[in-house]
């Protein structure tokens, strides 16, 4: 998941810059790579830049949530991955769940052994 986000992020940046480049510099050479897109540089450039921005936004939004992160209910102590509790509510007790990481440090009284 994180690897995909990084690829999406890198692709987004490349597409954003590439799109702007095509829109404002329809012909040119850069490090041996030459292009000539005068006929349709503006729509193409804007399209590529938009695609890049969409990729950037998607990578950042997904990056905010790790869907494999475990959440635990402080009442019944059911632990579930975030993907199964998108609203962070325990399916049994309907109370907000907490991230499993550090849970027993915050609630030492629930520690069994
Ligand atoms: Zn519960």
Automatic annotation (TrEMBL):
Q: Does the keyword Transmembrane helix apply?
A: yes
Instruction: Please give the start and end residues of each transmembrane region.
Output: 7-33, 39-60
The organism's superkingdom is given as Bacteria
Q: Which organism is it from?
A: Pseudodesulfovibrio cashew
The name of this protein is: Uncharacterized protein
Give the UniProt keywords, A-Z. Answer: Membrane, Transmembrane, Transmembrane helix
């Amino acid at each position: 998941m994180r690897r995909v986000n990084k690829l999406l992020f890198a692709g987004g940046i490349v597409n954003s810059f590439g799109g702007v480049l095509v829109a404002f510099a329809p012909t040119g050479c850069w490090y041996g790579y030459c292009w000539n897109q005068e006929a349709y540089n503006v729509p193409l450039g804007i399209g590529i830049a938009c695609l890049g921005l969409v990729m950037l936004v998607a990578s950042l939004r997904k990056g905010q949530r790790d869907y494999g992160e475990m959440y635990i209910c402080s009442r019944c102590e059911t632990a579930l991955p975030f993907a199964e509790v998108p609203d962070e509510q325990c399916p049994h007790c309907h109370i907000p769940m907490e991230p499993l990481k550090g849970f027993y440090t915050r609630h030492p009284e629930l520690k069994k052994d």
